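Colleagues,

Please find the record for the two-part complex below.
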Amino acid sequence: MRREIPILLVEDDMVDVKTVQRAFKQSKIGNPLYVTHNGEEALAFLRHEEPYSDPDEAPRPGLILLDLNMPVLNGIEFLQILKEDESLRRIPVIVLTTSRDETDLVRTYNLSVAGYILKPVDFPQFVDVVKTIDLYWSLSEMVPCLV
Amino acid sequence: MFHRFRDPLPLLRKYSAATALLLSLAATAAGWRISTQHALSDALDRDPAPWLVLGFGTAASFLLFAAVRLQAAQSQSAHALAKRLSASFRQSEDSLRKARDELQWNVQRRMDELSLTNQVLQEEIGRRIQAEVLLENKINQLNQVNADLNDFAYIVSHDLRAPLRAIGSLAHWVYEDNAAALNEEGRENLETLSGRVRRMDALINGILEYSRIGRLEPGREVLDSHKVCREVIESLAPPENIAVRIVGTLPQIEYDRTHLEQVLQNLLGNAIKHFGKPTGEITVSATESIGAWEFCVRDTGVGIEEKHFERIFKIFQTLKPRDQVEASGIGLTIVKAIVEKHGGKVRVESTPGQGAAFYFTAPKVLASQGNDDFPTFAGGNAELAHTATEMN
């Protein structure tokens, strides 16, 4: 993954946020990681609305890591809005969840997610997952004009 | 009005004697008058006519008299007959009326009875409809409770996983960040903590899997169980001291692929895990019975005492402490749930010290479905299949 590409993590659980941050550090992934805590905040971030009105503070991400079970606006609701938005729909989204529910799997793939990853219980396993994501997005071409 | 023109006969009948007398008197008088005008003998000699008239008159009178009497007698008997007839007629009319009335009464009574029966029946139907509605409500309630329970199991286990994962991660970080500062006991405790987290995760996964069997309709496809079994054995990677093999050829069955894999995995996994002897073998076989195949997973391990046969299929029941053998106690519960979901049965046979055999039945492939006719997805997986094609 190109080092300058920002990544947006949408996750409400503090330990899960820490897990991703720590796994990034251990996998030596230097991409800037931005965190929002639910779908509504994430939309505000992407649309440069309060409190993310400064575009420098909220750059357009090249990849979104999305949890599904969140308060206010959950992952699926967020995806529905995102994929309706002509300017945001091309940003790849990877679902990072504990939900093994087939219906979640079907619904998110129907909403064109780039991947669906179950959060492993073991931290070392999670580090492997993050490394794999990094490797994949180093190989996969991204839409160059991210505006 | 008609009775004014009375039959003249009865009058004649009534006065027949008087009429005959009058007629004979008239005839005699006429004869007498004729005879007085002439000397009788002369008259007789000269003219016999008056005598003839007299004689005829008398004869006619008597004839008339006789005729009238006869007529009267006849008339009387006819009258009597008519009277008798009318009497018997009246009588039969009476009995007919009586019969008719009786019949009417009977019909009425039957009608009353019928309407009563009808009413009872109507009430009965009403009661039955009510009972049916009640039953349906109860079934709906039961289904709802069942669905709620499944959802509950699902949600609870799902929500339990998040903090559990956090505990696991935090323990790991403490260990990682302070490996040098920790003493032997501290490291051991943190390792045990991680082990317990994994065990709890296995339990939660078990509940999730179990609740999923109840929640989703299983898919049905024609499967080569021999191939599936071989794959499962391969994935289990049994230790070298235990030989796992298939006896004969396993049949084609109509089953949910994941379910069949899970059943074989759990039964074979259990046989390996609880073998309890340095060496031995595990065999998988299938025999044909009416309408079903009976699969058998047999091991030559330590076996199970009969008193435990029921307990081992119950959720979270293990026969050994979990620290000795890492087991969730949900494997056989899942096997039973899956097999029963597909209309089969599970049973166990064992001779302690010699081994155990777990049997389960699976429905045969219907004749209409041949080998070439592989419905790859069905039921609960249909939506997934749809998505898969959409993705392509």
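The beta strands of chain B are 221-224, 242-246, 252-255, 280-289, 292-299, 346-351, 355-363.

Comments are welcome before we finalize the supplementary table.
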